[in-house]
Fold this protein.
Amino acid sequence: MGGYRGIGPEAGTFVPKEKAFDYALGRCLSGLPDEREEFREMLVEWYYSGNWIEEDQINCSRGSR
């Protein structure tokens, strides 16, 4: 069975691959405030990195959705 074995502060933890997403999401959503903020920033950057163009609100045209 494959998975992820923790080191450092996660030493002694093994997360099977089929539970990796749930474990990571749980840790990111219930971590310390600075960890949650870092996750939020990374998630937004990742999600909008494909079919999106970042615009400043000031420069948006009135007709855009």
